Amino acid sequence: MTTKHDNLIDGQWVAGNAYTKNVNPSNLADVIGEYAQADAAQLEAAVQAARAAFPAWSTSGIQARHDALDKIGNEIIARKEELGRLLSREEGKTLADGIGEAVRAGNIFKFFAGECLRLAGETIPSVRPGIGVEITREPVGVVGIITPWNFPIAIPAWKIAPALAYGNCVVIKPADLVPGCSWAIAEIISRSGIPAGVFNLVMGRGSVVGERLINHPGIDAVTFTGSVSVGGRVAQACAQNMKKVQLEMGGKNPQVVLDDADLKQAVELCVQSAFFQTGQRCTASSRLIVTEGIYPKFIEAMKARMATLKIDDALKAGTDIGPASSQAQLEQDLSYIEIGKSEGATLAAGGERLKRDTEGFYVAPALFTETSSEMRINREEIFGPVASVIRVKDYEAALAEANNTTFGLSAGIATTSLKYATHFKRHCQAGMVMVNLPTAGVDYHVPFGGRKGSSYGPREQGRYAQEFFTTVKTAYSLA
């Protein structure tokens, strides 16, 4: 018998009319649990509960908010092994990565607990004598949160925590593929002292819950992380209904390797950027842009390093890369591998479906060489362990190629030249730039986001989160 997990609405656990099974992609025989599917009536109840709770919560004392968020963060960190194991079972990333993500989620809550106490404004003189001006920030209102499947505890945390810290109420719909971690956060929040109705969890399909959430007149702002196609529809709906919107979407991130790079270091950061966590990261580097002097050595070193990678059950000791997260994602990965071959790229390593002791969605990381920027594998986000190498003449050509994309989330360069590193940081058209580091891997206390088609609206994380989760008020007073 599997355990049923209900929605959290107005402080109560509410059964769904239906439940879906949460299955381990490393072992399809392992059912993690059954999770409720919300309907329109339950979404309505969640929104109304949040609206009713908003007046009191939005004006509540900052110490109470701090204490609740700090308590949530402490419990997540204390249970990091348990929550990390849950994450690895439902999403497929390695246990070490799962535990690390759980710790990150806890730290995010603790950071925003501190932000409750750092709320600041301005008092400035008016240009008119005898008048004072106060500039303050207030919560936006009820925030609808829609999260993806690839970071099932960190991304909910970095949206929920600032929303609550700044006095907003929340209705969250997690990805239907990975409801377990969001449910675990909800259960912790339900015991944190946060009043009923302030936080509400409604699980279910995007077509049922997500569409109604973004279009509901009781939702004041929507923060979404997911695909470009869905993000575009979210933006249109929010614009039509005059809602504040924040979007984090795709990436086709470049990793430049120059002739002067440390070869071993460059290969390691490329392998980590492109293939770890099965390439299922919006910050993953799927375009490896390599100058011609180091190109032959780089290709051989990449193939040698890839041959050492262990692809297996996410929970097994020594596993480097787990499975794709779902059958659909596996099929997409394999489809793009066939597309690359059909376009004339050379499959230099990997790309085959793998069998392991348990039935799961395993695929060997794939490396394409002899590719061009016009190929679909260099234009479209694959979201899997597939990387292609583009050979260029020099740094100037590498920079041009790096910027030759409709995306602009993360970018990296491997070089020992301070001149090129400095120039790249300034001229690369990306929201985040890494020098001699993997493109995937960011801190929780600094802004996260990109340019072009990767992001829309204010940045996430760190103190920059206040730009989305608050609104500015200017008040005048006669002295």
Fold and architecture overview:
The chain is α/β, with parallel strands linked by helices and 479 residues long. The protein has two domains: 4-249 and 454-478, Aldehyde Dehydrogenase, Chain A, domain 1 (3-Layer(aba) Sandwich), CATH 3.40.605; 253-435, Aldehyde Dehydrogenase, Chain A, domain 2 (3-Layer(aba) Sandwich). The protein is 37% helix and 24% strand. The protein is built from 14 helices and 23 strands. It has helices at residues 40-58, 62-78, 80-91, 95-116, 154-165, 179-189, 206-215, 228-240, 263-275, 295-306, 327-342, 395-402, 418-427, 466-469; strands at residues 4-5, 7-9, 12-14, 18-24, 27-37, 122-125, 131-139, 142-146, 169-173, 199-201, 221-225, 244-248, 253-257, 285-291, 346-349, 366-369, 386-392, 407-408, 410-414, 432-435, 451-452, 455-456, 470-478. The strands form six sheets. It has a seven-stranded mixed β-sheet with strand order 15-16-17-14-13-19-20, with helices on both faces. A six-stranded mixed β-sheet has the order 10-9-8-11-12-22, with helices on both faces. Strand 19 (410-414), helix 13 and strand 20 (432-435) form a beta-alpha-beta unit. Helix 2 packs antiparallel against helix 4. The protein starts with a strand and ends with a strand.
CATH top level class name of the largest domain: Alpha Beta
**Uncertain segments of ≥5 residues (pLDDT<50)?**
none
- How can the largest sheet be summarized? 7 strands, mixed
Level-2 CATH architecture of the largest domain: 3-Layer(aba) Sandwich
Going by CATH, what is the homologous superfamily of the largest domain?
Aldehyde Dehydrogenase, Chain A, domain 1
Total strands: the figure is 23
Q: Identify the overall geometry.
A: globular
Which secondary-structure class do the elements indicate?
alpha/beta
What would the average pLDDT be, to the nearest integer?
97
